[in-house]
Amino acid sequence: MTSTHSVRIEKLVAGGDGLTRMDDGRVVFVPNVLEGELVEIELSEKKTDFGRGQLLSIIEPSKNRRTPPCEYVAHGCGGCDWQHIERRIQGQAKLAIVAEAYARTARLEVDPQLRRLTEDARRTTVRMVSDSSGNLGFRAHDSHDIVPVSSCMVSHSLLNDFISRPVLEGAGEVTIRVGARTGDVGVWAHEGKLANGLPAGLKTGERATITEKVGEHLFKVSMGSFFQSSPEAAELIVDSVSRRLDNLGIEGGMLLDAYGGVGLFSLAFSDRFDELLLVESSESACRDAVRNLAECAAVIEQANVDTWEAAEVDVVIADPARQGLGKHGSQAIIETGAQTIILVSCDPVAGARDARLLTDAGYKIGEVEVLDIFPETHHVEVVAAFSL
Predict the structure, then answer these.
(1) CA 15 vs CA 29, 35, 292: distances in Å
(2) 76 in any annotated domain
(3) pLDDT classification of 2: cutoffs 50, 70, 90
(4) Domain range holding 160?
(5) Is residue 291 part of a domain?
(6) Do 240 and 355 sit in the same domain of this protein?
C-alpha cells in the first residue's frame, strides 16, 4: 500500500531536484518543484538515509513557478527539467547550488558571480530518437518512452527546420549538429537508417564534420566529437577564462589544454601563449584538433589525462567531462607544476571536489564564475581560477 505525504521543499540541489525532510529525518529528493513549495508526494524509492519522491500535486505553489513555455513538457518530454521555474530564478538557484557545493564538498567559502547567455542563443547539437514511423522525439523523463516533437524551443532554427521532416526511415537514434554561423548541417545515425530525400549538402556519418565559427576562429567539428552547446556558449566560456587570465596577468609561456577536445581553448589563446600542448583522449576530437590547430605551434597528444605522463607547463586550462578531474586527473595536473590552473566544470559537486584536491596541493582559489549556458535546465558551467 502506498502512502502520500505533504512536505515543504527546503531548497533546490545539484541535479535539479528539490530537497525535503521527512518526520524521521530522512532526506527526500523531489523533481519539478521550487524552494518553499508545499507539495504532496509519493515515495518512489526508499533507502536507509534518503528517498525519492514522485510529485502528485502542488498545494502551495511558489510565486516563481510558471507554466512551462514549451508545449512538449506537458507531454512528458524530459529534455528541459527547469521550465517550470522563472528564468531569473533559474540563475539564482544555480548560484546557490554552486556556493553550497563548494561549502559542503570543498569546505571553501566562495562568492560566485553569474553570467548568462544572450536570449537568442540556441543549442546547435541534439541527440534524438525516432519511433517505428520515423517520428523524431526526445525521451520522456526517467523513461525510454518517446515524446514526438516537431520543434524544440532551446534548439537553433536550423535544427528545427531539419527535425520537422523525417530523418530516419523507422526506429533509431540520431545526433544532429548544425553550424549556426556557417549553415552546415550534419547527421549521424547511431541506430537505424537515414530517410530518403534528405537535403542536398548534408554531412552524414560519425566522421562527417561541420564548421562553426567562435570568435574570429573557424572550427572543424566531427559528428563524433564533443563541442559546446552553441557558439555563444563557447564564446562565453572563452571570455570567462580570458578574464581570469587577464586578472592574473598571464601572458606567454606554455599552456596545457587538458581534456582539450577539438582545440577550442588552444586556438582561442594561441596568440597569448608561446607554446601549446593539448591532451585529449578522444580519437575523433584529436583528428579535429590537428586540423583546427594546423597554423599554431601546438603539440597534440591523444591520451587519458588520468594516466598521462605530466610535462612541465606554466598554465593549465582543464575542461573535464561531467565526472571532473578526480584524484588521478588532479594529480596529473598538479605534477605539471603549473603556477595557474583554470578549471571549467560542468557539474558543481565534481568541480567542488576537484577544487578541494587542488587547494590541498597548495593552490589558492581565486574568482569563481557561474555560467548559465543551459537555460531551462539545472545544468551549469563553473569557471574557477587557482594559483600557487
Answers:
(1) 10, 14, 34
(2) no
(3) low
(4) 125-210
(5) yes
(6) yes
Q: What is the CATH number for 45? A: 2.40.50.140
Looking at the structure, do residues 32 and 158 belong to the same domain, yes or no? no
The answer to whether residues 29 and 49 touch, using CB atoms and an 8 Å cutoff, is no
Are 310 and 340 in a shared domain?
A: yes
Q: Any residues with CB less than 8 A from the CB of 205 and at least 6 apart, and which?
A: 188, 223
Per-position DSSP letters for 268-304, written without gaps between them? HTTTT-SEEEEEE--HHHHHHHHHHTTTS-EEEEE--
Note whether 341 and 358 are same-domain residues: yes
> What is the rounded CA–CA span in Å between residue 131 and residue 137?
8
Write down the pTM of the prediction.
Answer: 0.94
Average confidence (pLDDT) over 293-313: 95
The SS3 call for residue 89 is helix
Q: What is the C-alpha separation between 117 and 375, in angstroms, rounded?
A: 8
Q: Specify if 319 maps to a domain.
A: yes
Round to whole Å and give the CA distance between 40 and 359.
Answer: 42
Residue type, 42: E
- Chain segment 191-230, per-residue pLDDT in tens: 999 998 888 889 999 999 999 999 999 999 999 999 999 9
Q: What is the domain count for the chain?
A: 3
- Gap between the terminal Cα atoms of the chain: 58
The verdict on 270 and 379 lying in the same domain is yes
Contact 207, 284 (CB under 8 A): yes
Give the three-state DSSP class for 47: coil
> Residue 260 has which C-alpha cell?
582539450
